[in-house]
């Protein structure tokens, strides 16, 4: 349960930068990154009542963002450690694989 800050820059302009914070890495991946992609899909397909996607589509979306990173609180040092897109994709993969196994 490490406090996590999600930093997102969807476009090339710095003005598109936003951040949000979560109580854990998993919450950040699910309620943050996956939700951003799902909202994107809803905007792109407003007349589709039910939208499905696979992990490769989600990863392509992550790759096309100008910037996406996380700052995760490290209790031992009382600091935040930065993590990049590859780390985020790995965490999402683990999270979704666990959900699929249930």
Automatic annotation (TrEMBL):
Source superkingdom: Eukaryota
Gene3D superfamilies associated with the record: Enhancer of rudimentary (3.30.2260.10)
Coiled coil: none
Protein name: Enhancer of rudimentary homolog
Keyword Cell cycle: yes
Annotated source species: Meganyctiphanes norvegica
Family note: Belongs to the E(R) family.
One Pfam family it belongs to: ER
Its job: May have a role in the cell cycle.
Alphabetic keyword roster: Cell cycle
